[in-house]
Amino acid sequence: MLRAFVLTAIVLLTAAGSISPSAAGPAIENTEKEQYLNQLKIQHATSSERTALLAQVNSLLNEHALLKGYQVGRPQAADWLYSVRIAQPGTLLVRLEQRHASGAVEVSSQLLQLYGITPFFSYSCERSHAKCNILHESRSEPLLQIIRRPEAASELSRALSYLVRELQR
Predict the structure, then answer these.
(1) Domain assignments of the chain as residue spans, ordered by start
(2) What is the DSSP letter of 140?
(3) Residue spans of beta strands (DSSP E) within 89-130
(4) For residue 21, what pLDDT is reported?
């Protein structure tokens, strides 16, 4: 509703010549981003955008983890539990813990160097698989995998993009 009001106001002001059409785009994007970040800061009870974004990414990874119960028919199904943390300035550490049905646990991690990369992430959800892949153009393999829920994958990609932008400052 607020977004529709803002868009209507921008259209009217643009038509009246009060603002230029090129100024409307970034204003909408910034307002949307500010609203999103404010919502996350309230949701995660913090005043830090960085902390809120990191908490949101980890919350989404936890809530939409690719668990073995979703991997029907896979002979070696495992729980795929991801977490993300800041390893050092300009570096994000992505940790994967795989818990197999046999009880074996494998832990791996990868570093994502943030300086010099685009902050944009995408996702791919194939109907034939029980998962969505979170992708970044700097990697040939998916960075993260979650249960096949396109809305969650979209939200995770968005939060990661904002987090990387924040950490690149």
Answers:
(1) 2-43, 49-167
(2) S
(3) 91-100, 105-113, 122-125
(4) 42
